[in-house]
Write a structure and sequence with these properties.
The chain has about 280 residues and is α/β, with parallel strands linked by helices. Helices cover about 35% and strands about 15% of the residues. It has nine helices and eight strands. The protein has helices at about 20-25, 45-50, 85-110, 115-125, 130-140, 170-180, 200-210, 225-235, 265-270; strands at about 5, 30-35, 55-65, 70-75, 185, 215-220, 240-245, 280. Strands 1, 2, 3, 4, 5, 6, 7 and 8 form an eight-stranded mixed sheet that branches. The longest helix has 27 residues, at about 85-110. The mean pLDDT is about 95.
């Protein structure tokens, strides 16, 4: 089985619609794909309806969190999307995305970049606006050559000159809320140092003690020594090690299935979940 547990659609900051995403996942030879848009489940219904035969959909979201001033992302799988407390927190994060993005546009203009809010809003479309949309505008303006090059201290990284903080969950609360909704939590790209500051290993141990289920090990932003380090950490802390592409369509260079999750690990994630269940494709 080929299992990719971290992808994005136009419901947040990917360039594939949910329909295109599941069809592209099937074409890439995947057996299982998780749709984990940022702080939203808005793409799930469309993905379900378009799911090709032979492909299984895992519903999820990537939750924006912060601990001790450091941002981190928590992948949540197979939770009940109607659970009210978790739904309310996702809405608070989404509601803060527009003023936050407008603040980053204002900072960029102060830095001499001829970017406009209208340009960013057009790029985001109906999706939950985020930094990748602003980074795309910077590429279009010729300020940086690629979206990844915008995520530096020069521009949009967590310590960047144009960065603006948004409402984010405490990760311990995120674990509690997801578990209360019957879901499973995995810390996304925990040592992606290119993105800015990372949480210390001691904090990962505390999250594990609080009920964190896994950590994303195989990811494009982790080099081989980092993956080995994370694999050892997962073993020491009793965490499930996952692998995922973090696919964003044409917005990033990674492809569906570039990194995958072991079938036994996937099976354990499904076993632990009680809020929702994998959706088998019926040729939609």
């Amino acid at each position: 089985m080929r299992i990719d547990l971290h992808t994005h659609s136009t419901a947040s900051d990917g360039t594939d619609t949910p329909t295109e995403l599941v069809r592209n996942a099937a074409a890439a030879g995947l057996d299982v794909v998780a749709l984990t848009d940022h702080d939203t489940v808005g793409g799930h219904a469309e993905a379900r309806a378009a799911l090709p035969g032979g492909l299984t959909l895992i519903t999820g979201a990537e939750l924006s969190c912060r601990i001790d001033g450091v941002s981190l992302h928590m992948l949540a799988y197979l939770f009940d999307p109607e659970e009210p407390e978790l739904a309310r927190e996702r809405e608070l994060v989404r509601d803060d995305r527009v003023p936050r993005a407008q603040g980053m546009v204002a900072k960029l203009r102060d830095l001499g970049v001829p970017i406009t809010w209208e340009q960013v809003a057009r790029i985001a479309g109906d999706g939950a606006v985020g930094r990748p949309h602003i980074a795309t505008a910077l590429v279009d303006l010729g300020v940086v050559p690629t979206v990844s090059d915008a995520f530096t201290s020069e521009w949009l990284a967590n310590d960047g000159r144009a960065y603006v903080q948004k409402h984010e969950l405490d990760p311990f609360d995120a674990i509690r809320l997801v578990k209360a909704a019957g879901g499973v939590t995995v810390f996304a790209h925990p040592l992606a140092v290119k993105r800015g500051s990372c949480v210390p290993e001691s904090a990962i141990a505390e999250l594990a003690a609080a009920g964190l289920d896994g950590i994303e090990v195989d990811h494009m932003d982790h080099d081989e020594p980092t993956r080995a380090r994370l694999r050892g950490m997962a073993a020491d802390l009793g965490l499930l090690p996952t692998g995922s592409s973090d696919y964003h369509g044409s917005r990033k260079t990674c492809r569906l299935g570039d990194y995958t999750t072991d079938p036994e690990i996937y099976g354990e994630i499904v076993r632990r979940a009680t809020g929702a269940f994998p959706v088998p494709g019926t040729g939609g």
